[in-house]
Design brief:
By secondary structure, this protein is an alpha+beta fold. It has two domains: 55 residues, Hypothetical PUA domain-like, domain 1 (Ribosomal Protein L25, Chain P, Beta Barrel); 62 residues, Alpha/beta knot (3-Layer(aba) Sandwich). The protein contains three helices and six strands. The strands form two sheets. It has a four-stranded antiparallel beta sheet, covered by helices on one side. The chain has a two-stranded parallel ribbon with strand order 5-6. It is globular, with a radius of gyration of 18 Å. The protein starts with 5 loop residues before the first strand and ends with a helix.
């Protein structure tokens, strides 16, 4: 993304800005997409399902720890894994590797594993937004 560009936000992000944060056209926000930059943006169109923003400024951020911390985590049941991923991300872990340990009770076939990985990626992305990473 670059300054002056108009971007249509994903539905989940649009919903958060309009319904949770209650932003309207003309309001400003800061966006991130995990590329190491923060994007100051102004809402140019705010509908129920679609929000468009204009990127006003791009700022490089360097808020990562100089230590590369990797967490090997046995797959936990239910929401425990979500909480582990969320907190590890917020604390600055740079890589999380889910593993099937000897006593892991959760067994994932290929289709279910793919869905869980997509869900875990959403959890990590949300935690990045929460912690400013």
């Amino acid at each position: 993304m670059h300054s002056g560009q108009t971007v249509t936000l994903p539905e989940e992000t649009a919903n958060h800005l309009v319904r949770v944060m209650r932003l309207r056209e003309g309001d400003t926000c800061v966006l991130f997409n995990g590329d190491g930059h923060d994007y100051s943006a102004t809402l140019t169109a705010a509908g129920k399902r679609e929000v468009q923003v204009r990127i006003d400024a791009v700022q490089a951020v360097d808020n990562e720890s100089p230590l590369a911390i990797t967490l090997l985590q046995g797959i936990a049941r239910g929401e425990k894994m979500d909480l582990i991923l969320q907190k590890a991300t917020e604390l600055g872990v740079s890589a999380i590797v889910p593993v099937n340990a000897e006593r892991t009770e959760v067994k994932l076939d290929a289709a279910r594993a793919e869905k869980r990985v997509a869900h875990w990626n959403n959890v990590v992305t949300s935690a990045c937004g929460q912690s400013g990473r």
